[in-house]
Automatic annotation (TrEMBL), chain A:
Location (main, coarse): membrane
Domain of life: Bacteria
Spans through the membrane: 14-34, 40-60, 67-84, 90-112, 119-138, 158-179, 210-232, 238-258, 265-283, 289-308
Pfam families from the UniProt entry: BPD_transp_2
Listed EC numbers: 3.6.3.17
Cleaved signal peptide residues: none
Xref: NCBIfam families: PRK11285.1
Top EC group: hydrolase
The protein's name: L-arabinose ABC transporter permease AraH
The keyword Calcium is annotated on this UniProt entry: no
TrEMBL record, chain B:
Keyword match Hydrolase: yes
Top EC category: hydrolase
Homology family: Belongs to the ABC transporter superfamily.
A matching Pfam family: ABC_tran
Keywords from the named record: ATP-binding, Cell inner membrane, Cell membrane, Hydrolase, Membrane, Nucleotide-binding, Repeat, Sugar transport, Translocase, Transport
Compartment(s): Cell inner membrane; Cell membrane
Keyword Transmembrane helix on entry: no
Protein name: L-arabinose ABC transporter ATP-binding protein AraG
InterPro entries: AAA+_ATPase (IPR003593), ABC_carbohydrate_import_ATPase (IPR050107), ABC_transporter-like_ATP-bd (IPR003439), ABC_transporter-like_CS (IPR017871), P-loop_NTPase (IPR027417)
Bilayer topology annotation: Peripheral membrane protein
Domain of life: Bacteria
Upper lineage: Bacteria, Pseudomonadati, Pseudomonadota, Alphaproteobacteria, Hyphomicrobiales
UniProt-listed GO biological process terms: monosaccharide transmembrane transport
Amino acid sequence: MTNQLKKILLGDQGIVLIFIVAFTIVALLVPNFLTERNMLGLLQSVVTVGIVACTMMFCLAARDFDLSVGSTAAFTGMVAVMASNTTGSILVGIGAALLCGAFVGFVNGFVIAKFRINALITTLATMQIVRGLALISSDGRAIGINDPGFYQLALSKLFGIPTPVWILAGLFVIFGFVLNRTVFGKNTLAIGGNPEASRLAGANVDKTRIWIFALQGVVCAVAGILLASRITSGQPNAAVGLELSVISACVLGGVSLAGGRATMAGVIVGVMIMGIAENVMNLMNIPAFYQYIVRGLILLLAVMLDNLRSSAFIRR
Amino acid sequence: MSFLQFSNLTKTYPGVKALSGISFDVRKGAVHGLMGENGAGKSTLIRILSGDQHANEGEIRIDGDVQAYGSSRDAFEHGVIVIHQELQLVPELTVAENLYLGRFPARAGVVASAKMFADVTEKLKIAGIDIDPRRKVKTLSIGERQMVEIAKAVMLDARVIALDEPTSSLSSRESEILFTLIDRLRAEGKVILYVSHRLDEVFRLCDSLTVLRDGKLAAHHETLQGVTRDQIVAEMVGREINDIWGWRGREAGAVRLKVENVSGERLPEPASFDVRAGEIVGFFGLIGAGRSELMRLVFGADPQFSGVTSIDGVQVKAGSPRQAIRSGIVLCSEDRKHDGILQGRSIEENINVSSRRHYSPFGLLDRKREVEVAETFIKRLKVRTPSRKQDIVNLSGGNQQKVILGRWLAEQGVKILIVDEPTRGIDVGAKSEIYEILYELAESGMGIVVVSSELPEVMGICDRILVMCAGKIAAGLNRAQFEENAILAAALPDVKQPTEIAY
């Protein structure tokens, strides 16, 4: 019986089960949690982390790492605001932001794959460079949005649900499909499992890695644009520490830092658990300072779970 | 007087009974062989002995005391040392540092280097091991590293030393040094558990022998006198295998693979050879003779400095494994763990990883087809697994090898199959199965290259043998000319110390 339970908890879908149990308990115990207003607020609060987690999942699954996502989101948010202010066209702003995001990601991927520089170091460098670009381009100040239409990106609703939540859901579906049903997704997991064996099996390792980082950049831009729209301005200091929240959510969702293991369902749940923890603490009026501690503890627990899972599956 | 006793040892993993009720005794001062096919339970037994795993039932006694250690460190302190196939030394440290790792002789935290080196020099001398303790482990050959591991066991005053296939990557000369050392340990009254697939070694070294089959005790021989090789093989596989090679003649066709003057960083001397359709060509040589290096160059795994490779008269664009695979050359490399298996992924994915590009329109997977392909090759290659979804790291070495072979058999349009040490660490039954597959592929017109360090194997299954020595192709013999002494002579370099060549 206990063995059975252990097997389920440590299995691929174990985290989903934990989530359902945790959600039920919270819904029953915490007043105002299960209200429409709070649920929408919760979903909106996880949009940024959730969007970036989609591609961070690929990055980690391929045994890579990306620390530059926070800076990239801030920078692309700035670009979107500045470009749309100057040209008067929101579409041009969005296009420019996506291009810049893709460029940053491509540079990351190219340096990591072709020059064989550790991903942690490379993205630590670009994290600072890109943050610097964001500060330089705005002279360190926040830049307000001129066209009120830009606010609508974050404010508009479809069937009562905010647009950013739809976008998040869409990205979950798309990247879940890419991971499980495409050669690209399988190659990502194979590379994370064993990069040299994947190369010898004919997978284009360099190209796959560059694509992963380029996609990561584009997705950061999406998150950056929505963030700028929500806070009605481009902020050079936005999304500081985003990389840590995103990586935490992925690890919580069972993505192995050793590469080769990731599921979209797990990542969604990881993102939601992080969001719920914060939401519940807010509802219960727990001061923000304590929230850091709780977040840290959750991450530690997640890593220990990952460890248990890995050792439970080693046999013979 | 039995010193090491196993009684009623039982271990179950989810869905598999790895060991059931194993009982046998080993006397003091004996080298005890442990044989069995892959998955027979040898590794599990060793793991329990080393404290790495726990038995569900049964116990192990050493000198009458029940061993109830919780970890390998515990086992260590009780004088049980297991030397695994993958050696556990730190490459960047010196020999002496490795031997003293975890218990450096120190005063106020400062390592007393002089004392340490002096100690180690003396102890290596006593053990009859000729290695400079100041050398870094990364500069040692695999054989020398093995010696260092054994020296470690001796220094820790081990009572029981288990060796898990110690010779699988040693040259015959290195093996001989190892055997001398084992003889010495026997004379000192140690108990040695010797796991091997090689009957020659077992007869050369062991006093007694236990054979496992499917997790059960198949046979226990108190002495090897009067025991025949055929008997042991029959005990291992549970049936008689008459001729494990089963070679049969074939008509070779036109030249399929032509390699001209290929060289690279680790093979400076340009090499040339060709392989005909339907031909099985063996590459024999000592470890470090350049066989694997040559194959990696042909496959594009390492960059070529010079040379031209062509298939069916068409030049192959050299440079990457991708291009080689697309032109019909595939390689099962020697180091399964590092270059072959995709850890953490299922058997199904490990088989489909290369061939799926043929049936994934626009990069979208055809899941039905992938299942079919996986099932086909699991069945055809007799991979022993509860399901195609099993993580490949859970399979035994032989079964992993079959999965990698399956990966390449699933690939379409393969013209040249290169297999590097295809049967290393694989049991007799599975070996015959793999040979049979190679014959069938050759009969279908594929050209096959077999790289192997086992002379009987190369002589047993190949139509032609090329011998490599010190980075050069030294000789070529047709099947009619096969003669053990001639092949060995060609493989031995003129330089005095062959062990220097490795790495």
